[in-house]
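Moderator note: this is an archived Q&A kept for reference. The question asked for a predicted structure of one protein chain; the sequence and the answer are reproduced below.
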Amino acid sequence: MKYTKFLILLISLVLILFSLNSVLFKSKKDKIIENDIVKIKEKKVKLTPKPISIKDLTLKQLWSYYLINPCYLPLLKDSSLWEKGTRVGFDYDDLFNDSLPIKNKYRNRYLVGDFNVLDLNLKNKQVQEIYPPLNTLKDFDGVPKDIVTKMDTTLYNSPRYYDLIKEMRTRMKDSAEIYINFLEKVWQYRMVPIKREFSVEKSDLFAAGQSVIFCEACKDTLIMLGKFSVSSKRQDIALKINQKGEKVKSYFEYLPYGKRRKYYAGLNRITSKNWETERKYEKLDIQRDVEVGGGNNRVTFYDGKAQLPNFLLIKPSKEYKNAMNGNGIHEVSLRTLARGMLGTANSIGCIRVSDFGSKFLRWWVPQNCNFFISFDDKRYHKKIDIKGDIIDYLPFKNQEQGDRFRKWINKYKPNIARLLEIKETGDYRNGFIIDAYYYHEKDYNSYLKNNQK
């Protein structure tokens, strides 16, 4: 009996000691965990600091942001980027379109013209277009996400495309036609984005890097939605009377910097959005223009002859009294090397962009959208000194090589050939086929390797 009581007492004592040890151990363990949690929280605070208001960013911070995202360019208060005697940079509130109602969802859209072809180290900046994924555009907020993905990835005029149209009409009912119109009037014209280090004109080589960026200003950030390569002013026209009494045009170099820096205003507005003969201007196009504040069906012609498709009229801000009036953004109107020169200064005043670029901007830009143009005089234009022959910088060395590529792209990439208007024979230095080659360089070189004569 005594033995039994002793055994029970011993077991109870062991249990008490075990329990006490567990409590002590648990307390110590919890303390270690608690300390670790505090450390983790402290690390998180260090890794994710509170966002700095755009208005409070320093010039150094703005420069670092701009190098990643050109939408910050208007905010750079650096005198090297703006015309002497005018505003040196702009403020956050200047980005907004003050002609649209406060609640208009397109009021925060603006354009940036970054016309430098050289980087800060005076090296070729290169041009790389960025086409906006449709799911990043607020214009498609009311569309099912899977439909937007299909719109973005389906090849126009393919069996899948027509399946998509049927699905949109079934699932989206009447609203489907608005977005089908976008596919038919804008999105079908997209190509592989332009990417190039330099452009070729006859026997000359030029650094490429000029672009127009479409942006949205948000509370704590500026969003770059996309970027197109452009050509701004490098030339002007001289009219002379020949011996027959006829007016003869000639071109001479007229770069808009130095004493001519006033040519492009730092701040402009897109005050008129015109159309083109290639597309019909219909009810849904009118509806879209009403949604973004304005637009019309007028077609702009240069000298009464050459059409300037999708002309967006650029009106300088009143503070730039000596800036050029009547310029615009439009599709390249010359069908030889003009498109191949996108990314370099090459126009006589207006800002040239690709076929798709002109159509997309005409659709995306709200009426009176602010357009900021900035560049450093030393980095605006660069003719490259070349060693050897210009042929060394071209993908095709003669007519035979150029025509062989032309036939290949018409056979294997007919949509690209159609969009770029590439025929089966023609100039081997044509900018259209040079771009097309770089689009499909890997595929074409593989074809050549497997089809050697």
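Archived answer notes: The domain at 71-131+190-379 is CATH 2.40.440.10 (L,D-transpeptidase catalytic domain-like).
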